[in-house]
Each structure stands twice: as C-alpha cells, then as structure tokens.
C-alpha cells in the first residue's frame, strides 16, 4: 500500500506539475534588478538553502532570526535541503512554478537552466564588479554566475576539492604528501603495506567518482576542449586525455581503495571512516574540512593535512587547475518582493555574517572579501583558500557542468568503471552516446 | 422539491402503502447528488485527471525551465524499446515479483500453517508477533538498517560469513552489479514476510475445525491435511496475495532509492526509480511519463486479474 501511494504520488506530482506549468504558464520576460528600487520591509521571504545537514542548518536559521529582529515586518520561511535532496526538490518547485524568492544554485548548466527559463533575476546592476555590493564579493566568484554576459547569482562560499590526509598515519608509514599522481599510487601501496587503508572512498551516490575524474580531466584534457565538450551541440569527447584520465582513476581505485566495494559505501560513511582515523586519506571539498577534523572527531585538526590531487606526469591539460566552484543563490524572477530578497542576500553576505559562515562549525569559506577571519577559521581552510586563489582554472563539477543526460552517463558509467565492469573506452562511448542524444533532442 | 427526512424515508413513515414506497426514493433525485459532488470532483481531480494527464505528458517533450512543450506522438514509447535500462528495470521488477511470490505467498503460507498448527495459543500469538514486527518498521529505517548490514567489510553479513568460515562469499552486496538487486529483494522479503504470514494465519483461523477433526479421524497426517484442507480453503487468500504481491513488485520504489538509488551502473533500477531518474534528475518528464504509463498498464492489468480472480474463486463457508 505504501508503495502504491508513493508511485501514485510521483506520477501525480509529475503529471500535475507538468500540467500546471503547461497550463498556467509563467512570465517569460527577463527580469532585471533595479539598484534604486525602494526596499519594502514587509511580507514573507521564502528561501531554499542547501544547508539541510544538522551541522549547517543553524546558519540560515540564525541569520533569518537576526534579519527578522532588524525588520519586524518581515517573515523568513526556510526550506533547508541536503546536497542530494535539493536536486529533486528544486526541479519539483520549478515544474510547479513554485520557486521560492531566493534559491540555491550551482554554477554551470545547473544555473544556466534558470537563466534559460527566465526564472532568475538579472543582478548585473546590483552585484556587478563596479557596484557597491559587487566590490565586497570575490570577483571570480561573482563571474562564475555569469551567463550571456550578465550576472545572475550571489556567491555565498567558495568550494574546491582536496585530498585530506592523516599526518600521523602518513608519518607511521614513512609516506609524504605526493607531488605526482604516480607517487600517490606508490604512497597507497606503502600505506597498505604498513597496514593502513589508503583512501576512504564511498561511491554509492556516484558523484564522488565524478569529482576524482573531473580533476583528472582538468589535468589531462586541454581546457578549451573540455569547455567545448560541455555543450552537446559542439561536443566530441574524442581527446585522448579522457581515456587517460579514466585509466588513472581506475588505477587509483585499484591501488588506493576497497576496489569494487566503493560502490556499496556512501560518501558519508567514507568521511566518517577518515575522521575516525580508519583511513589515511579522503578526497573532500574544502567545505568538509571542519567535518573531517574537529574537536568532536577522533582525527584532530593538528593531524589533518591536505594536498591537491597530484597531476600525472606528462599531463596535457592545465596542471594548475583545481576542481571546484563557488556556490550561491539566485533570486526568483517570479518573486513579488525582489528588492527585499536582494537586501536579505546583502545581509547574508555582510562581513560579520560571512565570518561566522567561514569559521567552525560551518567552515564554509565565504565569497565575501574580508569575510574570512584567519583568527577564527580552521587554518587548513585558510590554506585551502590560498591554494584556490592560486589556481589557474576552476574546473566545474562534471555533473553540474554537463547536461543532465550526459551527467547521468558519467555517473553510472564511472560506477561501472570503479566496479570493474566497464573499460575507460566503454565509459567514453556511453558519454558520447548521451551527448549525441542530447544534441539530437536540441 | 422533495425533502428527504426521517419521517418520509424511514420504514415507519413508509409503512406498507404505495405512496410510502414512492416517498422512499427521493435520495435518487438530482439535489441529492450535491452531497456526493465534492467527493466525485475530488476523486476525478486527484485520481483520474493525473492518469489522463500522464498519458498526455507522455506524448510530449517538455522543458520544465522554459515551459516549452513539443508534441512528439509515440516517440517516447518507441524510446522505451531501445532503452537498455528500461529492460533492466523490467527484469528487476519481474525478479522482485517472482521472488516475492515464492517467499511472501508460498513461504508465508507454510509458516502460517505451522504457527496455526501449534497447540498452545500463547505460542501462536508469540510467533505471529515475532514475524510481524519487521512490517511495522518504516521502509526507510529498514533500508538504512540493511545498508549497514550489507556494508563491505564492517557489515554484519560479511562479519557473520567470515565468522562461519565462509569468507570466500564476502562481497560488496550493494556495490556489485551482480548482487545489488538481490540484496534489496532479500531485505524486502524480510520486511514483508510477517505481514503475509499474518494474513494467511487469519485465513487459516477461518477454516472450520470440524474439517481437520474429520480428517484426523480418517487418518490423514499433517501434510495431507495441509494439502487437502488448508491449501484449498485458503485459495482465495493465496490468489489475492499473489496478485497484491505482483502489483507491489511493479510499484517498488523506496527500498531501491534508500539502498542504491538504482546503482551501481543502473543495475538495480526498477521502473519506479528509472521514472524518477528521468523526470526529476534528467528533466525528461515526457519520457518519465511514458515509463509511468507502462507501470500503470501493468498494475491495471494485474488489478483486473485480481477482480476477476476474487469473483470467480469466492468461497462460501
């Protein structure tokens, strides 16, 4: 009975949402934010955040409470989702034309969808580099939300992927942070010999493998080729760097992880294993540093180190690139109180709130200039931010840079590659097929 | 307008007179339909409209972001035939149905017969409760519980295998394309087995004791009594359970989403999760609606079979 209710619910949600969106329609006019618009401090603002995790959820709650205290006529309604659940939630809200006033977005094709559908407010005049607000934000982070020469997003924090490691385990095994990919594989062998699990890797959700491969692609495939291949109309996926990256990923799985078992482990369990000191390394986002090592975990901050996934010898791409992107928020074009929504985001990104966001327990390095206080932040996060600023290219997440169908091909095929049931060539074949199907559909 | 009321529609008012009988019919006049109109509209809007709309959506390609709709006729249905994951999903649904029928119908029937055959009623109640408890746990909780049981290396299952000297059978149960769907189906049997057992136990309790007493006097042993009395007398319940189980197997969703989300490499996808993947992950709502239509047709046919079977096999005791 429960099953049938669920299926009926999905079918109903799908059909009704589509039916309503097709029938009711919505404004297809581009909405441009007016920098001189008067803010009416009254009414309700709804916000969809990606801070649903227990550790992160208090941030928006407290910011909202402070804002409500400053402006008693305003009520903030929060919808807080996790990294995984927000994808389905956002699409349901889009399909039913119910996007909240402010909503979370990734960069790349994820954000582009909202722009393409005229569902995001053009914020160029309020967040552009020459504006008062724009000058308080990292220019590169603001630019990451640029589409068709216009700015649509407010970056909240910066993110990038690093290999975190346990200094004590490395020391006991006589291993140092490797400088090349080949050295990393050798380190894994040495760690295994010393009785340690080299890398804790959970790929049940499939996107963790995509993160490894994304970084390797940035190293092995010329940037221009990569960016061309993000667009199905232009994509070829024929650069030899693709297959080379996949072969390297498979070697990493075989040398450094539990092999095929990684597909049965969740990323959260893998992170837990690392913070419990059961594994020497864990490939993680900078925003996870404070979850890996804190006062409450077995792995202490003093024993936590990190390095970029090292580039392979002779790589033909950009070896100074780093995989990552800022994450931020857009304002719904259908919002009835756009000036208030902009004002709230200005409040969220103000230096005082930004410093709270950057410091433990949140550890989300703010995109606000001066929003990162070294005095209160985890030193590893500070060092990671410095590393990000030195990167020559920010490689976007493969599953948000590509179209959903191509992303799905990457996700499922990389699980097969990790599980040993598909070859690197087979993976590329699946990706090319998905891209061709998308090009045909467009 | 006739106003229905206790004085006009009740037997006391109606009496034996013809006029009274005529007055007993006003419930069929148009004004009375007002009272059911809301229910009819609700059922139409929430049950039948989505079904019809789903078929309409399945003939289109829709971009949920721009709202653009393109009519593609039966293209989405043609795509179903060429989509290998649809066939994997269908195969998994069929596997789910076959294994569930074996365990949750025939296995549960045998277990119920054994429990009901116990002499002491207190033990009967105890075992019914023991087997029913898993059914009372939410599927999400069960999924997480089994996720930990199946964990590679640290999971309870692998640890038990190693302890029993069966280390060669240790494997990533949910992480392998060859075992993921079986691991999920096994969990589902664990959860659903007790519920089916309870239903069979109720059916067995309805069988008159005299039949068993007579069979014992005739010298029939337990197996013969099971085959010649219990099985035929619970045939209606067995048929119903087969159909309910098959229908449920084609609507399975939660178990797969919680444990593998259809992975690895789509090996544990079922039609329900593939529908979700297409609609809500890949933005392909038209194609998702076509998959939903397939699920609808399969479950509708099973439902019709259920109605036909229960009418034909109704047992009058």
In short:
In chain A, 46% of the residues lie in helices and 12% in strands.
Would you mind describing this structure in some detail?
The complex is a heterodimer of chains A (442) and B (317). Chain A is α/β, with parallel strands linked by helices. Chain A folds into 2 domains: 17-158 and 324-371, Periplasmic binding protein-like II (D-Maltodextrin-Binding Protein, domain 2), CATH 3.40.190.10; 161-323 and 399-441, D-Maltodextrin-Binding Protein, domain 2. Helices cover 46% and strands 12% of the residues of chain A. A 5-stranded mixed β-sheet of chain A has the order 2-1-3-12-6. Chain A is globular. Residues 17-25 of chain A have low confidence and may be disordered. Chain B is an all-alpha fold. Chain B has a single domain, classed as MetI-like fold (Orthogonal Bundle). Helices cover 70% and strands 2% of the residues of chain B. Chain B has 16 helices and 2 strands. Chain B has helices spanning 6-9, 11-14, 18-23, 30-57, 75-82, 84-116, 121-132, 139-149, 156-163, 180-205, 209-217, 222-233, 235-250, 254-259, 271-281, 285-312, and strands spanning 60-62, 69-71. Chain B has a two-stranded antiparallel ribbon with strand order 1-2. In chain B, a hairpin with a 6-residue loop joins β1 (60-62) and β2 (69-71). In chain B, α6 (84-116) packs parallel to α10, α13 runs antiparallel to α16 and α15 packs antiparallel against α16 (285-312). Residues 1-21 of chain B have low confidence and may be disordered. Classes of the chains: A alpha/beta (442), B mainly alpha (317). At the A-B interface, α1, α3, α4 and α18 of A face α4, α15 and α16 of B.
